[in-house]
Prior knowledge:
- Helices cover 62% and strands 0% of the residues.
- The protein has seven helices and no strands.
- It has helices at residues 5-14, 16-22, 29-34, 40-48, 52-63, 70-81, 83-90.
- It is globular and about 35 Å long.
- 22% of the residues are buried.
Amino acid sequence: MRHGLEDEWETLHRCREYLISEIDAAKVVSYLREKQVLTVDQERTILGETVKEQRTEIFLDMLEMTPPESYAVFLEAVGEVYPHVYLELSGDDGLDGKASFLET
């Protein structure tokens, strides 16, 4: 079993469909550009897509190509806008005590 940052990218990949349905990249992409995870051109490409799900797919594709350290910045951004998604990705069982769908 691999440990560390690679596992976090695996989590992102495994949760891809959930992320596409739950987040809108338009609400977090500026934060990632400000933190130099994404370029201005990447931000324009993402924001140029008018369909939310496709915009988020493009965003996730680009995010997975960034250095592993970018995952923490992604979590910060998601936590600010989508706390329920942050709880799922971070492995927290949430405030209601229910187990995360990510646990296997």
